[in-house]
Amino acid sequence: MAVIKRIGVLTAGGDAPGMNAAIRAVVRYAIYSKIEVVGILRGWGGLINDEIKQLDHRSVSGIINQGGTVLKTARCAEFKTDEGQKRAFENIKKHAIDALVVIGGDGSFRAAHEFGIKYQIPCIGIPASIDNDINGIDTTIGSDTAINTALSAIDNIRDTATSMERIFVVEVMGKSSGYIALQVALAGGCEEVLIPERDFNLEDICHDIVNGNLRGKISWIIIIAEGVGKADDIARKINEMTGLETRPVVLGHIQRGGRPTAFSRRLALTLGQAAVDYLLKGESDKAVSLNCGDITTVDLGSAIQRKKIDVDNFYRLIRILT
Ligand code: F6P
To answer: Per residue in 112-162, pLDDT tens?
Structure first.
């Protein structure tokens, strides 16, 4: 088993609230475990471009409650090339980095999986993404915060939708996953939700709206996951088919920012410690996770497969309770 004296930590892909808490836990728990830590800036690009700095206990002071990531983050096309990976490995040797902790989503895990195997660098992933789309992992850091942020906006929209008797089509993030959409539709008491994992027929939905309207149900909130299309287009079509005033709202990047919830912070702190512990136990090519309350690991190769969510039961409950 390789001796680990110095680890590198980076955040990659879209930021997620709670990444800072995870960085704090990795740095402080590693120092407690007598390991040095360097921070790699701007994700994989920082490893290629040698943007690497020593971190100490105080480097991570005052960040536990901040959204975003103090290490900065980016999506890095260059790291997909052999040349980019070669330069990254040269910097790993230059800084005597024995292992990597990669905080990010499925794209970051794919990169860690390929790079770790190719260059024999132990890599442990900490799942952080608002999308909660990592296979085998109950909940990612930041997902709870993003859902609560979106829900708060939807509660506000509900006030005006009810008062002005309008239909709203609200687009939420989630890449190709409908997870955020399902969660906020259920928790927000929304009338309809459109997600990529489930076929829908806009004509049937418009039929329901018109029938509801005849019975006196005037306001509707329809949540759409970004993976099914644009709020503008769907609102326009509903307006054309029903003749009822329909407004689009795109929540967008608001969902990615803000103070992490207690749940996102606790998850981040727990997984930060777990990542260091697993590296010290000689584990590699794994993501840490809190599944059903237990800290566990998932192979990175499996974590990057498509995650299935329990769409039917969720959708059924939303419809019954509407
Ligand atoms: O993966 C997180 C996420 O916010 C997705 O929900 C969204 O599709 C994507 O990132 C947006 O990325 P960018 O900020 O690079 O446009």
So the answer is: 999 999 999 999 999 999 999 999 999 999 999 999 999 999 999 999 999
DSSP 90-142: HHHHHTT--EEEEEE-HHHHHHHHHHHHHHT--EEEEEB-TT---TT-S--BT
Edge-to-edge strand ranges of the sheet holding 220-225: 192-194, 220-225, 167-172, 246-250
What domains sit in the chain, N to C, each tagged with a CATH number?
Answer: 6-142+260-303 (3.40.50.450), 144-256 (3.40.50.460)
pTM for the full model? 0.97
Mutate to test the pocket of ligand 1, among 171, 173, 195, 254 (most ligand atoms within 8 A of CB): 173
Is the distance from CB of 28 to CB of 21 less than 8 angstroms? no
Nearest CA to ligand 1 atom 1: 14
- Terminus-to-terminus CA distance in the chain, angstroms? 56
- Inter-CA distances, 98 with 20, 94, 235, Å: 22, 11, 52
